[in-house]
Structures are given as C-alpha cells and as structure tokens.
Amino acid sequence: MSGTAPGTAQSPPAAGKRSLARLAAVQALYQIDLGGADPAEVIAEFAAHRLGREIEGDRYGDADRAFFATLVNGARERGAEIDAALAAALPMDWPLERLERVLRAILRAGAFELLALHDVPAPVVINEYLEIAHAFFGGKEPGMVNGVLDRLARTLRSEELSGSARNGGAQAR
Predict the structure, then answer these.
(1) What is the domain count for the chain?
(2) N or C: which end of the chain has fewer CB within 10 A?
(3) Domain for residue 7, yes or no?
(4) Residues with Cβ < 8 Å from 118, sequence gap 6 or more?
C-alpha cells in the first residue's frame, strides 16, 4: 500500500511505464493481427484514445509511448525474422499459426525485445511477458511463454545469460 491518498494519481515510475507499454504493444499487435490494420494507425489510435485515458470506467495507465511504438513497429518490421525464431523455439506440434492470437502477440513482442533491445536484461524481459500472459490466460499458456522466450534468450543472448549464471544471477544495470 502506498502513502498516496485515495483518488490521487501518481505517475508510475519509468519501469512501470515500460510495463504498461509492453501490455499496450501486445494489445496493438493483437489488433493488427486480427484485422490487418496499419501499424502506424493503430499506434496513433492507442496514443490518442487509450494510453493514459479512461474508457468505460477503466483507467489505462500512462505508458512509455516511445517504447510502445518501438515495440509495435519493431515486431512488425522484423516479423519474418521473429516468426522464424519463434517457430524454431516452439514445440514441433505447436506451429505459430496454431497459437491463439493473443499468445502470438505476447511471443512476438517478447521475441522482438530479446532480439533487438538489449537495455533490459533477458530474465526481466521474460518475466514481463510472463506477467502479461498471466493477465490473459489461466492455463498452460504462461508456461509456454516462459519456455519459448527462455529458449530464445538462450539463443539470442547466450553471452548475457552465461555471464549472469557465473555471477550468481546478478546484473550490473
């Protein structure tokens, strides 16, 4: 419990804004996948009408908008590369096309971040998307997200993870 009075909004810390950006990026990627919408239009719509706004009584957090746009654009621009990496990391009996759209969006956003954005340690990235998976799914899907992103991280960031293991998991960041 914080010391903030009820009804008083505080700006979330930068990490909180990034977490919100990740969640919004998953939602945007889902929307793009579902209807084939233009990513630039979806990003603009989220910025204008969702991020930091109240919709039907639900308050959407004020996400890091630049990070949100980077995640959405990057996951779309590098889609073929990301899908190939995910296909290699998925179990043989679970091709990417078989996965539910939200699950694909979570994996694509997480894979992009592991592939292209090295400012956040891989275990943190995996945990962030695991939390998002838990927000959407109550079954085995979060475990699949954890396993697939962990496999990708071991491939894409093997040096980082081997250094982490040598140092007892500590990251100097």
Answers:
(1) 1
(2) N
(3) no
(4) 157, 160
